[in-house]
Amino acid sequence: MKPRRLRNTPTLRKMVRETRLDKSALIYPIFVIEGDNIKEEILSMPGQFRYSVDRLNEVLTETLASGVLAVIFFGIPKEKDEIGSGAYAQDGIVQQALRYTKRNFPAIYCITDICMCEYTSHGHCGILEGKEVQNNATVEVLANIAISHAQAGADMVAPSDMMDGRVKAIRKKLDDNGYINTPIMSYSAKYASAFYGPFREAAGSAPSFGDRKSYQMDYHNTDEAMKEVLLDVEEGADIIMIKPALSYLDIISNISKVINLPICAYSVSGEYAMVKATAAAGFVDEDGIICEMAVSAFRAGVSMYITYFAKEIARFIDEGRIG
Ligand code: PBG
């Protein structure tokens, strides 16, 4: 056996590839901020911006032009309160972004993050009693957020809060209101991760005290990811997400071997920031590691990939570098 025989020419190497990528699998995260005429760069994520709704045109046009058809919105409201009421407000920031996008870019598939941390004054992902995040009270609010997003035009909702039982509650609320065809992509295995640091700067959502370890998962655990995923499958999730991506390829691989739902990985803000910083220092080939990171997620078993590099990856696919 001579494995090198199949590595002889670019055509042959491509022919025998075990992993294939397609632009239709890419999802691009977009930060929308309340206000006018805003396009501000996120300090820890060079090349990523916060857009006001009146400037969304620019990024949506670029996204479509790259061939990426799906986005996930994150909202940054002007006002926050204890109970995160901005998250389900009729004219909340994500709701406005959805109406704008559905009206002006009907080809774009709109996913929304369902969580409270960007909307609460304390920065936690739920309703507090003392210093504790209350599970069931939060789940009720999450279902209300989901319905308000669906009413504003969301094509899919993605709960990222890690409360117990939220998928079931959201499914019921969507069904009861006639949104029987709105899929739920559940952040099922979401680890308490330092990789979210830049996102929290981007969205102003860092907790004002404590951390998220009482709801997000401990990164020492593997079996627990399966427990979370199985619960979400039972509760009616349509797509399972694992997050972050890069340090969690083992989890993706385990889950994708036994779960027969589409699996999505979220390559998070810290992964993006690390690539940008090290490439800016001249230490690595930026394009090269973007390609390698993306392919590793698909090789591990995802069929969908949320990444701040979505537009770049689409270009690399066009150029035949990967795919
Ligand atoms: C909301 C949410 C977070 C991310 C996605 N949804 C932040 C967090 O849990 O602290 C992180 C995404 C990223 O880092 O790119 N809960």
User: Which range does the strand content fall in?
Assistant: 15-25%
| SSE-based structural type | alpha/beta
- What is the radius of gyration computed over CA atoms, rounded to a whole number of angstroms? 19 Å
Write the element-wise H/E pattern from the N-terminal end onward. Answer: HEEEHEHEEEHEHEHHEHEHHEH
Low-confidence stretches: none
What is the terminal separation in angstroms? 27 Å
Bound molecules: ligand PBG
Residues in helices, as a percent range: 25-40%
Overall shape: it is globular
Number of β-strand runs: 12
Mean pLDDT reading = 97
Give a quick account of the main beta sheet: strands, pairing sense, barrel closure: 10 strands, mixed
Q: Enumerate how many helices there are, as a single number.
A: 11
In short:
With 323 residues, this protein is of the alpha/beta class.
Core attributes:
11 helices, two-stranded antiparallel sheet, ten-stranded mixed sheet, binds ligand PBG, 38% helix, 323 residues, alpha/beta
